[in-house]
Write a structure and sequence with these properties.
Layout lengths: L6 H10 L2 H10 L2 H8 L1 H26 L4 H16 L2 H24 L2 H4 L16 H30 L2 H9 L4 H31 L11 H9 L15 H31 L7
Helix pairs in contact: 3-11, 4-5, 4-8, 5-8, 6-8, 8-10, 9-10, 10-12, 11-12
Length: 282
């Protein structure tokens, strides 16, 4: 990497860095490390879009749990109970792989001959093979995270809606607001004040679950840390070193701690914004 820098910058670095420091700097800025730094985008994309989907699924789940129709209410209760009871890693692996094989099965029924379908191999023919890209795996990972943590968010939102003082809702009805207006303008508006502390915990759990992306063949920060930290005794692929994985994992510890600190400050800001002009009854 240093060879690509302007000569004056290399000379400037050599003026106050030792030879070992320059070697380490060159190692930390090689192509593989730059790919590791760039892979942070996968973690952030999965976290942000997974969280947005979790809020959407949470609102839907909370709405189902509050439904006056028993079948819808039962669906909401089953969703929040069943999904919360399934280990995160199992669900994150199950949904993308099951969806992938379901699509391959549908393609095989149209593209493969009866003889190939009866062969028992999978996929039955080359035409039924669906090769997923990193972007497609990332989309399915976001959906998986949204479904799993949407169940947690549904319980948080459901409890927050129940926490809105009933007297304020009755006062809104007495002023002539329709049930829909009472729900959206008063209950949902005030619900966020009570929901944000719980949703911040859901976000923290979801953020930690992004470390499972490598299980879906996504070259994220965890997978690159494993690759870069593994013992390397081939000089042409980088610095020769023993097992350094603990050092790379320590960097990931720092990364997730910083993300947690930033997240706490962001949710504190949202809490202040949502509480403006309101008196929260404890």
């Amino acid at each position: 990497m240093l060879e690509t820098l302007p000569e004056f910058l290399v000379v400037w670095l050599q003026s106050f860095l030792s030879e070992d420091s320059l070697t380490m700097l060159d190692y930390l800025t090689n192509g593989k490390h730059l790919a590791w730094y760039a892979s942070v985008q996968y973690t952030l994309i999965a976290a942000v879009f997974g969280a947005l989907l979790a809020v959407i699924f949470g609102l839907i789940g909370a709405g189902l749990k509050r439904s006056v129709f028993f079948p819808l209410r039962a669906i909401g209760n089953v969703y929040t109970t069943m999904v919360r009871g399934i280990p995160d890693v199992l669900f994150i692996l199950f949904f993308p792989l099951a969806f992938e094989q379901l699509v391959e099965y549908a393609i095989a029924q149209r593209q493969c001959s009866p003889t190939e379908l009866a062969s028992g191999s999978w996929p039955p023919c080359d035409a039924a093979q669906w090769y997923l890209s990193t972007a497609e795996y990332l989309i399915m990972a976001c959906v998986s995270l949204g479904i799993v943590y949407g169940a947690f968010a549904a319980n948080v939102i459901h409890g927050a809606m129940n926490a809105v003082p009933k007297g304020q809702l009755e006062a809104a009805r007495s002023y002539g607001f329709s049930p829909a207006q009472v729900f959206w303008r008063f209950q949902v508006r005030q619900m966020w004040v009570y929901a944000l502390p719980g949703l911040s915990n859901v976000w923290m759990l979801l953020l930690k679950a992004t470390s499972f992306l490598s299980l879906l063949q996504i070259a994220d920060i965890v997978l690159w840390a494993e690759r870069l930290g593994a013992p390397n005794f081939i000089a042409r692929v980088g610095m020769v070193h023993p097992d350094w994985r603990w050092k790379y994992y320590f960097v990931l510890f720092i990364f997730y701690i910083l993300m947690a600190i930033l997240s706490e400050r962001f949710f504190a800001y949202l809490q202040r914004r949502a509480s403006r002009g309101m008196s929260v009854v404890n």
